Every structure is written in C-alpha cells, then in structure tokens.
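User: Hello, beginner here. Can you help me understand these amino acid letters and fold codes? It all follows right here:
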Amino acid sequence: MSSRRPHFLVFTYPLQGHIAPALRLARRLLAVAPDVLVTFSTTIAAHSRMFPAAKSTDDVECGAEEEDGRLEFHPFSDGTKGGYAGGGSGSGSGSGDVAEFNAYMASFHAAGARSAGEIVDALAARGRPVSRVVYTLMLPWAADVARERGVASALYWIQPVLVLAIYHHYFHGYAGVIAEQYRRGDPSLLVELPGLPPLAVRDLPTFLTESTDPGDYFHTVFLTFRDLFDTLDRETSNSTATILVNSCQELEVGALAAIAPHDVLLLPIGPVLPTGDEETSMFKEEDAARYMEWLHSKPPNSVVYVSFGSLATMAREQVEELLLGLEESGRPYLLVVRKDNRAMLAEEAETTELGERAKNGVVVEWCDQAHVLSHPAVGCFVTHCGWNSVAESVASGVPMVGVPKVSEQSTNARLVERAWRVGVRAQADGGGVLRAAELRRCVEDVMGDGTAAAVVRRMAAEWKRVVAEAMGKGGSSYCNLMAFVDGARSSA
C-alpha cells in the first residue's frame, strides 16, 4: 500500500439538487476516514453562488478550503462567463429556448472535460494527486478524463436504484418497449422490465418518454444519459464499473437484484445527509431563527411542510390553490416559495405579500430542509418528490404527499406510496395544478385519524429506524462506503 493519502475528486453538475448530495458525500468521506482528502468541483458560476464572499473571478478560480485543508473547492469552466440562466433549466418546466440550452450543454461538455483534466493535472503537480474521480449524473466525460490519466473513477448515482435499473434496461434493449407503450397515450399502461415490478408509463422518468423527442427542451439531457450509460459500458469492458448510490440496500432489495447480474460494483452508501447544522448552498437561506422559533411553538406532528425544490416554479394559480388548501386544512404550515418564483408572480399581477395572506402558517423563500424535516413539529411533507427531498423525509420519518412533475420524480413517488407506504401521491388536474381540495384530502390521508394514515405514520417510523441503522457504524451503507475508501487506499 502506498503512503499517499487517498484523495477523492468530486465533480458535479451546477444545480442545487446535484451539488447538495455531492457535497454531502464529500463531507461524509471526511467524517468516516480521517486520512482522506477531498476536492470538490462544480462550475465557476455555481461556485461563485456557493461562496459569494469571493471578491473577484480570480478568487473564485483559486477555490476555497475547509476542514484544515482536507476539503478543497476548485471550480471547473463550462465555457461561459456566467453559467446558464435559461428559463427551462432554471424552472424545471422545459419552457425555455431549446437552441440556447443545447448550446450551453455542448459548451458544458466540451469545456468541462478540458477544464476537469486541467484540475486533475494541477492537483498532481502540487503534490495532491487524485486517487479516485467521483462524478454525478450529467458528467459522463469525467470518467474519460480519469481514464486518460490512469485514475480510477466511480459514478455517484444521486437517484434511487430503481431509477438506475430503469435507465439501464432502457439503454440495453428495452427502449422500443417503453417507446411503444408511451406512444399509445395511456399513462396507466404497464411496462415489464427484467427483475422489476410492472411499472405504469406515468411512473417512468420523463427523460425516457417525453424527452426522447429532439424537439423537447430536455432532449439534450436524454442524450447525456445515453452517453453516461455508453461510458459505463466502456468501463465494464475493461474492468468492473463502480457505482455509488445515494440509497441503502434495505430500501431497494428488488431493484438491486435486477442490477446484480451485470458487471457493475453497486455500492448503496446512503441516504447521505448533512454532517453538520449548516450546508453550503447556492440559495440564500431566510433567517432560520424566525421559522425555527415558529416550529418550536407547534405541537408534535402538527405542521404541514410544503416545498417543491430548487428548480420548479409555481404559477399564480398553483400558489393560490396551495394557500387555499393549506388554510382550509386548519393545520399550521410552512410553505417555501423561492425568491425567483416570487419575482415571477409579481410580474403577473399586483398581489398582497404572500406572508400576509398566510393566517395559519409561515411563508419563507428558502430554508434548511433537512433541519426542518428533523423537527418534531413536522408531521407531513408536501413535496415534488425529488430524490434529495424523498431521502431526507424517509430518514426523518416524515410522511409525504407526492406532487411529481419531471425527471424521476414520478418513480420516486411510486416508491413512496407503493413500495415503502410512507405517503400518498396527489393527483393534479388536467392542467397540472394541484387543487386545494385534493391537497386537503391527501394531507388528511397521512395526518388524519383514519387507519390508512396510522399505517403511513407507522411505516415512516419503521423506515426511519432502518435508514439510521444502515448509515450507522457497522450498517450496510457505512460498510459499503468504507469498502470504497479502502479500495482507494490500496491504489493511493
């Protein structure tokens, strides 16, 4: 074994939903292994939002460090001055300019690969050589950058194993099966994939249905996933590809079995949660003392927490329905409406400040979600079902009302409702709006006095215990992560 310290270089896409799990993994590696070094890298524009105190571009490009130098931040270039600010990528609605987004993604892939290679070389030159490159979903080129320099790599899959299995089957012989069922136009039609339970078309990731059309805003994302699985196939042709998954094996026994026969070392190492009280984020958090003090004043399991994540924006009609449904539920609530979403609402019409209309709740622009979900007053999470949110909710034992929109969110909602029985899936109307009456019904289904609600709460408590054991010392996720670290030590 070499005397060098194992050094992980973590690359991620510049969205909060990718940065959060990647940075949590970075800090988790530091926490479980005192000899480990980590370098974290996202685009310059995202890095500057994470560290707004940087006074110049030179300061940003020089990076930052934490943990006595064990964790360093070195951004890579995506070939642009300020990143991508188009409507579709930012809103999650896919309503922006397709050509503009395609151009950004082309620049991101080409410039990103060049810049990432320069970072690996620079780290080696200053005596901090990389032992493993770890990369998230949208960076298939990171594996090529590592291979060209004789460095091993691992994909960090920041979605559940079930989604990984669906993508794997799609790109290995089942694209036509899925396409045919989708073309028939009935979202309830079932798709049979090896080793998996029958899945309705509406339960599949939208990038494998809607986004296969070259005219779809997210078609470039579909192509990137295709390239990602091509990359994994190249890796397995030479050796065994390594995939870290932000889930635990107890949550996804069946999906793991569906992937097991293939030449992949699959290591569930999650759900990886924050290691401290605060996280580095691209969003400015509202005064935490205000909403936490409000939560402290509420009875256990009484508060409805509502947040649709870092991407999706809500039209005025949806905000109105949410406020109406929450007020009529008679339960206290904490509603997140991001600053950029509020700005859009203000452009549509003059309205009273949202907070003033919340008679029985609090409206905030952003919050420390993991901290909120762990508060004993929170009894329900109305969520878009992004995987970070679902994982945090399961780990906190909080029942969910799922309101999925894009990507793998519908698949996650299926896991929540049918596999783990820790929540229900709300039905939006024909225009995609969650109506007040449906919101009230779903909240009652998980917080009410009925037998079904009691089952949801009992299952939520049980899965919280299972996840805590998996992440604890000696648990399945802990042992898988330590095995990954030990592998890096042996080649450091």
Notes: The first helix runs from residue 16 to 32. Residues 55-60, 87-93, 347-352 have pLDDT under 50 and may be disordered. The chain is about 45% helix and 15% strand. Residues 72 and 351 are 45 Å apart (CA to CA).
